[in-house]
Write a structure and sequence with these properties.
This protein is α/β, with parallel strands linked by helices. The chain has one domain: Ribonuclease Z/Hydroxyacylglutathione hydrolase-like (Metallo-beta-lactamase, Chain A). Helix content is 31%, strand content 27%. An eight-stranded mixed beta sheet has the order 6-5-4-3-2-1-14-15, sandwiched between helices. A seven-stranded mixed beta sheet has the order 7-8-9-10-11-12-13. Strand 10, helix 5 and strand 11 form a beta-alpha-beta unit. Helix 3 runs parallel beside helix 4. It is globular.
Length: 283
């Protein structure tokens, strides 16, 4: 496992290498835009962030290999490298698809919160990371990743939340700032963590990855009134949980947020340049 002091040095090398190699073989893409893809992986979470310079960050991988099909569609047949793979927390609908991703793509670093999964599939994930020689690094609230003018700040979990028996409370919550955009990635956090964030951080965001697939345990009125997202994306598929709930949807509408859902809209792409957001839907 890398220590945190090594991360910045590694990322500088990684970014330079990535730009040198991939910009020579990728064509038809602007290098000065930031892109966020909310991938349609069914009842699960997966987001792909592409920073200026074609630096790629994959956050979660959904519950199955559907994530690989989405990545192949977006990245094409020649790209086989992802700079950072991030697991928000070790629950099946967030990490299982990463096993297929790591078998198909080379990853620079694997980032997680340090908590071990409680199901057998997590052992398979650790095995493939070991077999592929991917370095693991544990990050928690207060850690930051910078690349040029882009910043990814970890704002949760705290050391105390990381000890919670409820794995959802341990989700890595990340705030991205890039090209004038502020986006908040919330994993499966509930109201307890939302209240912690309200008290300790600036959570104002243009774009919100809605927590826990729009469950009744997240997206409280107070949290959304402070975040005031212009765009909210719910990653959800066919399920028996009632996701997204009417309460979550009404709370989002109450703050004037435009709502997208992967079960209705398919993969949602946001393209950002100088604070201007263009939205594309796959369906």
């Amino acid at each position: 496992m890398f220590n945190k002091n090594s991360l910045i040095v590694f990322l500088i090398f990684l970014a330079v290498f990535d730009v040198f190699v991939w910009q020579k073989i990728i064509f038809g893409k602007s290098g000065d835009k930031s892109e966020i893809y909310f991938l349609d992986v069914g009842q699960g979470d997966s987001q792909l962030v592409v920073l200026p310079g074609n630096v790629k960050i994959l956050i979660d991988g959904g519950p199955n290999n559907k994530v690989v099909k989405e990545l192949d569609y977006i990245l094409g047949s020649t790209e086989r490298y992802i700079d950072l793979v991030v697991m928000s927390h070790p629950q099946y609908d967030h990490f299982a698809g990463l096993i297929d991703v790591l078998n198909r793509y080379k990853a620079g670093i694997f980032i997680y919160n340090g908590r071990e999964g409680e199901i057998l599939a997590f052992r398979d994930l650790k095995d493939v990371l070991s077999e592929r020689g991917v370095p693991l690094i544990a990050l928690v609230g207060g850690d930051k990743i910078r690349y040029q003018n882009s910043k990814l700040e970890i704002i949760s979990p705290s050391e105390e939340l990381l000890k919670s028996k409820e794995l959802n409370d341990t989700s890595l919550v990340m705030k991205l700032e890039s090209n004038g955009l502020k986006a908040l990635f919330t994993g499966d956090i509930g109201i307890k963590v939302e209240n912690y964030l309200l008290k300790n951080f600036d959570i104002d965001a243009d774009v919100l990855k809605v927590a826990h697939h729009g469950s009744k345990f997240s997206s409280s009125e107070l949290f959304l009134e402070e975040a005031t997202p212009e765009i909210s994306v719910i990653e959800v598929g066919k399920n028996n949980y009632g996701h997204p709930t009417e309460k979550a949807l009404s709370n989002l509408l109450a703050v004037g947020s435009k709502i997208f859902r992967t079960d209705v809209d398919g993969t949602v792409k946001l393209s950002v340049s100088d604070g201007e957001i263009l939205i594309f839907k796959k369906k």
